[in-house]
Every structure is written in C-alpha cells, then in structure tokens.
From TrEMBL:
Enzyme Commission designation: 2.3.1.97
Domain Glycylpeptide N-tetradecanoyltransferase N-terminal: 45-204
SUPFAM superfamilies named among the record's database cross-references: Acyl-CoA N-acyltransferases (Nat)
Protein species of origin: Opuntia streptacantha (Prickly pear cactus)
Keyword Acyltransferase (UniProt): yes
Protein name: Glycylpeptide N-tetradecanoyltransferase
Keyword Iron part of the UniProt annotation: no
Molecular function terms from GO: glycylpeptide N-tetradecanoyltransferase activity
Protein family per UniProt: Belongs to the NMT family.
Lineage, opening ranks: Eukaryota, Viridiplantae, Streptophyta, Embryophyta, Tracheophyta
Reaction(s) catalysed by this chain's protein: N-terminal glycyl-[protein] + tetradecanoyl-CoA = N-tetradecanoylglycyl-[protein] + CoA + H(+)
InterPro entries per record: Acyl_CoA_acyltransferase, NMT, NMT_C, NMT_CS, NMT_N
Top-level lineage group: Eukaryota
Amino acid sequence: GENSIEALARRIQESLTVEQRHRFWETQPVGQFRDVGDSNLSEGPIEQPTPLSEVKQEPYTLPEAYEWITCDMDTNEMCDEVYRLLANNYVEDDENMFRFNYSKDFLQWALRPPGYYKSWHIGVQVKASRKLVAFITGVPARIRVRGDVITMAEVNFLCVHKKLRSKRLAPVMIKEVTRRVHLENIWQAAYTAGVVIPTPIATCQYWHRSLNPKKLIDVGFSRLGPRMTMSRTIKLYKLPDSPVTSGFRKMELRDVPAVTRLVRGYLSQFVVAPDFDENDVEHWLLPKENVVDGYVVESPETHEITDFCSFYTLPSTILGNPNYSTLKAAYSYYNVSTKTPLIQLMNDALVVAKKKDYDVFNALDIMENESFLKELKFGPGDGKLHYYLYNYRLRNPLKTSELGLVLL
C-alpha cells in the first residue's frame, strides 16, 4: 500500500504547526533532517539493543474508554472487522475520490508471512461496545542494507477511525507496535508514508498505466489529454490480446526454486532489498487469486526459467460516483529479466492484467522500473511515497534506482 503511516501523518498535518509536527519523531531513533550527509556519522543502527529484561513489559496506556486487543487474522470474524475498519477509514487520495479497499484475502496474505507474530497485529477497541476503532501491524522481514542482512519489522496498516482522529492515538500505537517488536529482539523497522516525517531513505513516485481509459476518465482518475478525443485515447492505450513472449506462463509451485535464484540474483544489486528464501518466494510471489500474480518465462528449448514478473491486486473504492463503485488496480511487484527485454516482459504483464479486467497498472520508479515507464505509456501520478527505516541510519538518501524493496 502507499501509506502505512499516513493516518498519523494526516492527523499531525491537520492539528499541528511544523515545529510541533516533528516533536514525536525527534524523540525517536530515526535519521534527523539536520544529520543528512554528515560524513562523521557512521551508517547502521542508531541505538544499540536494550537488554530484553529492560524492554517495557506492559502495554502503553490508552485513553480510559479504550483497550488493546490482539487481532487474530486466522478467524473470519476478526478479518471482517479489520476489513470494515480499513474499508471505511483507511487512506484516501487528497481529493477524497478514492479509498484503498484491501480484500480479506489480501490482508491474510499480507499479515501472515513466514515467521509472523500474532502479537504484532494490534487493535484498539472501545471497552463498552468492543468495537474496533484503530489498527496497526508489523510483519517480520529480512532486509539487506548494503552488506548487512537485518531482521526488521515492516509496519503497515496504521488506521484510526475517522471519529477519533483528534485523540493522539497514532503515536501511542506506533510506540506499542515498537515495544512488541522489541520483545522479539528486533530493533529495526521499515515503513512507507505519503508525507514527509524525519527522515526518508528514499522518495519515490507512482506512475500509472491506463488499461481501461474510458472508465478512468469517467471516474475522474485521469483527464482527457489536450486535443485528444476519447476514441484516440482508447486507441493509444490498446494492447495486444495475448503476451508476445514465447514460454510466458503463470508461475507454479514447482518454479519456486528457480524463481528464488532469479530474484535473489537480481535483488543483490540494490542498496536496500529483501533477502528472500524459498519460503518467502512461495508466500509472496506464488499466484493467489485476486491477491498476487506471478508469471515466468520458460525457455521453450532448455526449459530454464529466464524471466519473472509479478503484480499484486489492490482495488480502491470510488467515492460518490453513480456509475462505478470500484477501481481495480494492479501494482508492479518484483520483476526480473535476464533474457527477455524488461520492456517486453512488462508489456506482457500489462496484457495479462488487461485480460483480467484491471483498470490501471501502477508502478513506482524504483529498481529498474524507470527504463520502461515512459516507453510503455505510464504517466506520473500526483503522490510521492517516502520510504523510512527506524533505528538505522543511512548517510545519504538513496536514488530510487538503488531501492529494491516494495512494501504493500
């Protein structure tokens, strides 16, 4: 998703001056704006781990009417409740036209990777009614920064009910997830947000490729270009009926070892990237209907797997449109080309996404994505996505092409 800490950030934007705004973050072990580029500061952890016996053993205090709950995402009831909270209160675009609509299957996928901790799926409920009013999550991930592989928490889905946005719940929720992460002897975290807080390791931009231009224009996602008619626009974005690469097919379980080798080899070139093993690849990249899609290119001659592409599914609710209720969006995930040109591989990904009825295909300008964005008729979006590391300093911000990590 685009914005794990967006709810916090939006509330801070609304209620505080710039001076007050970063007071919370200035007390946290994150890179500070004043330190950017200071060559006297070493890279790596900012604070050393505390002995586990010194980590606070009891949860942080919530306002009187509320209590913590652990959200068991294995149960349908809890999944429903989390789904409803996010569907009605999670991230919207600046014009309040669209809101992310993570499916229950997506949430179960995103929140239960290998080695996940139930205790990191944290809810706040009203004591009296037991209604879920806030949510934050972490999942463990091995992330490589230059030569160091570090187990981190990926923090996501921070959401506070719209009616409680003034209660300053977000900082206490961030502290609580941090405390629970520390209890597992993990001292770093990665997260993204659509706003600037101290201090981004990279700032990326979303690009959008129209697959169903008429609908995108009708719902106000895109506008008709100057001197463009609807029919010229539809023609501009037309795609072939089927992939052009021979041996292009859906990934299967038997492909996991080959895809793991491919992805590991590819990701090794980036400064920050996940350290995937076969279990991770099976979880994150093996196709799951309406959640994640992965395709391989199998050489017709040697039967070797030479290329891989993937995207995940994240629809948005269209707010207040009489004709359409949902925008079906594909998000570029991990792509590796060794034999097929990346542009051709990604065009095939666009073709299969269009076939599956997606309206738009989104990609960040990270990894080598910039090499195909303009060529394949992606256009730059409004929003920026900022990447952050908690308790880990990088001396200078990364170029987007040095970033090999996609956070949902």
